[in-house]
Write a structure and sequence with these properties.
- Strands 3-2-1-4-6-5 form a six-stranded mixed sheet, sandwiched between helices.
- The protein has two domains: 158 residues, P-loop containing nucleotide triphosphate hydrolases (Rossmann fold, 3-Layer(aba) Sandwich), CATH 3.40.50.300; 68 residues, Conserved Hypothetical Protein Ylqf, Chain: A, domain 2.
- It is globular and about 70 Å long.
- By secondary structure, the protein is of the alpha/beta class.
- The protein has 13 helices and six strands.
- The N terminus is likely disordered.
- It starts with 7 loop residues before the first helix and ends with a helix.
């Protein structure tokens, strides 16, 4: 899936990350706890190499706690990284992060040089809010729109930790066809990057399958329909998203669903599980292999004609 959003400052940010990495002791990658796989930038994994990494599952207050526990187990067992589930709405959880950094490098924490950590993540995962909470002051701009941070900066958090902040970096091509929808459903990409109607239908279909009871409670529905289109129409009627002649304004109904999903008003919801991601990665590998085979076949045909 191609998301039409890769501003020039993101290319610059990628270069800055590469240049800063040799001076960094540990990388803190901030993920959206609702979509830990889809909010992981594969480019960052390649860049960091064997540097120690802490994966922070932010906005855990919006995610399904059972699924978050699955992800933490998966990240630590399969990827060999430390993981923390935190929420800026629950300040006590934030204290775990600097403590974990000091535990990883106890000697450096007490030295004059201190621990140099780099915080990275895609846009709108709550990175700037997290930094401000850790620093106990406003040092990073925050907002509901993605791509607020546009320049790298260094912040002294005290207690032996120096933090390098980087702009959110999104990659231009998303291989997993569902990840783009999940990024859009959680607000990680601007609404102009994808069709809102498509994203709403994707979210409605997923919620019908994975969280039917949440839908029933939120929209006071006794019997859920089978199809996402019917669900959006029902929500539109329930909430008065109507046009002339009593027709449902489907665009308005879809936007309402996405707004309430992003705000956590449907309850604590995760949009992907480790098992789902393993299946989808396998599907993506097959698609990639098929494309490569078609390219090779075209190349062979051209060579035959040329000969």
């Amino acid at each position: 899936m191609q998301i039409q959003w890769y501003p020039g400052h993101m290319h610059k940010a990628s270069k800055q990350i590469r240049e800063t990495l040799p001076q960094v002791d540990v990388i803190i990658e901030v993920l959206d706890a609702r979509i830990p796989f889809s909010s992981t930038n594969p480019m960052l994994s390649t860049l960091r190499g064997d540097k120690p990494c802490i994966k922070v599952l932010n906005k855990s207050d919006l995610a399904d706690p059972g699924v978050t526990a699955q992800w933490q187990h998966y990240l630590e067992r399969e990827q060999g990284v430390k993981s923390l589930a935190i929420s800026c709405q629950e300040p006590a959880t934030l204290k775990q992060l600097p403590k974990l950094c000091r535990d990883l490098f106890p000697a450096k924490a007490k030295s004059l040089k201190g621990i140099h950590a780099m915080i990275v993540g895609i846009p709108n995962v709550g990175k700037s809010t997290l930094i401000n909470s850790l620093a106990n002051r406003t040092v990073a701009k925050t907002g509901n729109e993605p791509a607020i941070t546009k320049a790298q900066q260094r912040i002294n958090l005290g207690d032996g930790i120096i933090l390098s902040d980087t702009p959110g970096v999104l990659w231009p091509n998303i291989e997993n066809r569902y990840s783009g929808y999940r990024l859009a459903a959680t607000g990680a990409v601007k609404e102009t990057a994808m069709q809102n109607d498509d994203v709403a239908h994707f979210a409605a279909g997923y919620l019908l399958q994975a969280y039917p009871e949440n839908l029933k409670v939120r929209y006071r529905i006794d019997q859920l329909p089978d199809a996402e289109h019917e669900l959006l129409e029902l929500i539109g009627r329930k909430r008065g998203c109507l046009r002339g002649g009593g027709r449902v304004d489907m665009e308005k109904a879809g936007k309402l669903l996405l707004t309430e999903l992003r705000a956590g008003q449907l309850g604590r919801i995760s949009l992907e599980t480790p098992a789902m991601m393993e299946r989808e990665q396998e599907e993506t590998r097959h698609i990639r292999e098929e494309k490569a085979a078609r390219r090779a076949a075209r190349k062979t045909r051209r060579s035959s004609k040329g000969g």
